[in-house]
User: What shape does this take?
Amino acid sequence: MRSSDVLRFARDAAAGYPLRTSLSVLAMAIGVAAVVVLTALGDGARRYVVDQFSALGSNLVIVLPGRSATGGFSPANALTTTPRDLTVDDAFALTRLPSVRRAAPLAAGNSEISANGRLREVVVAGTASTYLDIRSFRMAQGSFLPEGDWSRGAPVAVIGSKIKEEIFGGSPAVGELVRLGDRRLRIVGVLRPVGQGLGMNTDEVVFVPAAVAQSLFNTNTLFRILIEARSRGEIEAVKREVTAVLKARHGGEEDITVITQDAVLATFDRLLRALTAAVAGIAAISLAVAGILVMNVMLVAVTQRTGEIGLLKALGARGATIRNAFMAEAAMLSLVGAFTGYGLGLFGAFVLRRLYPVFPAYPPDWAVIAALGTALTTGLLFGIMPARRAARLDPVQALMKH
Amino acid sequence: MALIELAGIERVFHLGDSAVHALTRLDVGIEAGEYVAIMGPSGSGKSTLLNLLGLLDRPDAGTYRLEGRDVTTLSADEQAAVRSRRIGFVFQSFHLVPRLTAAENIALPMMLAGMAAAERARRVATALKDFGLEQRADHRPDQLSGGQRQRVAIARATVMQPAVLLADEPTGNLDRATGDDVINLLEALNAHGMTLIVVTHDQKIGSRARRQLMMEDGELKFDSARPAAVAG
Assistant: This one.
């Protein structure tokens, strides 16, 4: 029997039992659609998080005081127990490194802001003019902290949009005097709303020069140093150089931790990829179920068409011909089901994107390929048994069943 | 050389502990172009004999030579090839594939044999004309009368130009008049040289054959070609 005839015969056989065929196609389609939509959701979540992180600022490297992971025993570790603090001078030293485009100190603490007859608890961030560009913030009004000597801060402040809203309402804030702790500062700018980032809501932060913050909190340490590398490729160089410089400045002791945004991002990326894969795995169960359903449908088909199989044998069909015809039918059911499901899944992802425009719900390629592949494989695999059963039927017995 | 030579054929079915001898010590020869009726009560082994002749079943002992070739020792696939080219079947219940049209049903054995589509179409057209089914080519079996269905089945059985046509109660599901038409059709094919073997329990149809084989309890009780040899 020619292969084109096998295919046509299988197609006609499938079309001859529309209910049975459409049900198994539907089962397969739901399985594939589930994989496509669920992985689109998972991968959409991953992309969303990655995008959010990228919004933090590109090529960001963060220096923390203290060593998070020990490098084994060394005499230096044994002698000194408390790490040295990060200072504004440390931060300034880093700006001279060739791989560093910008660096900004960050001293943080809580204080109260009062102005316009209102009082509010705020997070105070002491930093420098470079911070704006490192974090890719935009100004709503006025300007950010002025450039100048980091160790001598001018009495100025920049406030987040929410603070502006709560203290000044609709009236202009730039140029107003506020009281921050025991200091009187002049507001020089208001940030545009940006939302959550680096563990604090920037809209509720008051930015002041680092020196002002340090004297406000009566300390000379920094909470973080933020660094922007010249390029993505130089992030590793920044890490190396920063560690070397600070080690030299801290008396040969490596008492800082350098983390990159890439590392944080990579962790989230891995996490969410694993989540997507897990979701895909759960959805794949529905594919296996669909495969078993195709097998059931084909077994019913063999029973239903026992007389026909006997006839085909009487007409000179070899066992292999009958097996191929039934395999082709199972493959067709799976194939049509898989592609219907793919279409449904794409449509589902499209609807999701329409409903939640910020959520990039596109199914990843690997998931689509895996779903289609699994559907076809299970369909064929589960088609083998019924097809073999058909091929092995005794023609005399089969002919009697009509 | 006889077309069909059966020598010492035995067929035993095992039902639980007991063995049922469906065919015992069967020796029959059938020449090309003969018109043979196999008759006998139900359970006499006539259907088993027909299945053996059609290579749908294998004997437990004995040899079956078709056109001089021992076909009992052939593999399943080789037997399928013999069925495809040398044997045509006509069944009591027609055995048409319900989803296929008359023309497609007739083309089925040629499709299974891997014949080219153009040759198939040519032969189907000829068969439809010969059997008076031109108007019914695109009808499905459920749109055909019983007589038309059996004519489609006969067209299908003969379209590969087999050496022998095996008919199992070909009129069993038909009324008397339609049954007579079908028998006339089969006899006309025989008149053109086709070897025809009909299994029937209908005396009237059986007596129309030129040779009768009477079966009883798995044994050949009477062969009209050799009245003396097998009696008893």
Chain B has one domain: 4-230. The first strand of chain B starts at residue 4 and ends at 15. The CA atoms of residues 9 and 62 of chain B lie 4 Å apart. Chain B has a mean pLDDT of 92.
